[in-house]
Write a structure and sequence with these properties.
- One of its GO terms (molecular function) is oxidoreductase activity.
- InterPro entries: ADH-like_N, ER, GroES-like_sf, NAD(P)-bd_dom_sf, YIM1/Zinc_Alcohol_DH_Fams.
- Pfam families: ADH_N, ADH_zinc_N_2.
- By secondary structure, the chain is an alpha/beta fold.
- The protein has two domains: 155 residues, Quinone Oxidoreductase, Chain A, domain 1, CATH 3.90.180; 150 residues, Rossmann fold (3-Layer(aba) Sandwich).
- The chain is built from twelve helices and 16 strands.
- Helix 3 packs across helix 4 and helix 7 packs parallel to helix 10.
- The protein is globular and about 55 Å long.
- The two termini are 12 Å apart.
- The model has no long low-confidence stretch (mean pLDDT 97).
Amino acid sequence: MQAYIVERYGKNHALRLANMPIPELREDEVLVQVHAAGVNLIDSKVKNGEFKLILPYATPFILGHDVAGIVTQVGRGVRQFKVGDEVYSRPDDLRIGTFAEFIAIKENSLALKPKNLTMEEAASMPLVALTAWQALVEKAQLKKGQKVFVQAGSGGVGTFAIQLAKHLGATVATTTSTSNVAWVKALGADIVIDYKKEDFEQVLSDYDVVLNSQDSKTLAKSMQVLKPNGQLITISGPADPLFAEEINAPWFVKQVIRLLSLGTRRLAKRLQVDFSFLFMKANGSQLKQITSLIESGVIHPVVDKVFPFESTNAALAYVESGRAKGKVVIKVR
């Protein structure tokens, strides 16, 4: 099969199109013929080697964290899916590889594709949807009447998180550039701050939850908009010691993570707010709940551009540019 592989870690190394063996199925896996693959910033970060400490992929490996396609084979232990099913997924860490014609995915990390979405729209959803769900529903337990600040409202996670937070009954604030203000409001944001004209920390106060996806400077400012005992959940780092425990990191990695997050944890303690790091996990049962929200029209996909398979490197570069409104997708088949 054809696949885009990482041959060497580093910013200056493009993905290479290569002939790779079709993955061998484990008992609990299904083989999916890839029709479309979503492109995410984590693809770039993994390629550049930023996650080598916690995700030690041996090169060469196939990149890609989002998929929609059709089941072509099932492992002998699989019970929920059959050949011909249209499915979508964010595959498990260390089992990624959606920039390819086929991928093997754990049954428990898979869900039937929403009936009202195209393959390209479905492929745009899993990673950002699960990130927002695990942050706002699982971690924050966001409730009706609470206030949540979702950074970068026009990004992939932002566009989904705004819609989900509104569905949960929260008041939603976000940041975006001048040209996207009206567009982000139409997604459901109540308060939209044009970051080119205003500083969000001077506008917002007494928030229950912040979903941080930006740099450390923005993270520190975000803590100031929270009420006492409010929650800051970051998906862009630094990782915290609890995460190191969850992944059973080696001793030296735990010490590195502890040191890198020390300043942030001290600031959170001083401001009497809760700080936690979220590294989203594959989860088919959560995807099923998300599917019902999509099929009922509560949440809509936001796809900026669809690139052909042969332009996978161009799609990745476009995501890295930070200009995308919503998600970027590769049409594989």
